[in-house]
Design goal:
Length: 153
Amino acid sequence: MLKNASNNKTRIHDSPFVIPGGSIGNRVWHDTNGNGIQDAGEPGLGGVTVELRQGPNVIATATTDANGNYVFANVVPGTYTVVFQKPSGYMFTPVTNQDSKVIDFVTGSTSPITITSGQTITTIDAGLYQGMGVGCRLVAVSYTHLRAHETLM
């Protein structure tokens, strides 16, 4: 109990209950072979914008450091998505294994992530590989099936 200096009335102060925040983060890397796995020697990508969203609302924004690392600290318990803004000339690595967490190749969004009080989540990664550009298409051709009079276009 404290006394108010102006009128000497007694007041009771409740101390606020503080819920410790958690953290979400990890790495954006250049997936040089496009296999979705962070292979030895594949560098991080610096300068990539990463958003923490709750529903459609952007809660926080981070930029990856020179090694591709980012973190959102003091995240209040709840459910979020992380959205990666791909740099020009890059494409998101397909999600075929545990390393890349981007599930929407258009928006760069992850699936929902639920964080609890004090929890640290360091597995939210994005692999990016250099694409072929707008309007380009890769066609696989088997050379063994070309006949002498056929040409490869």
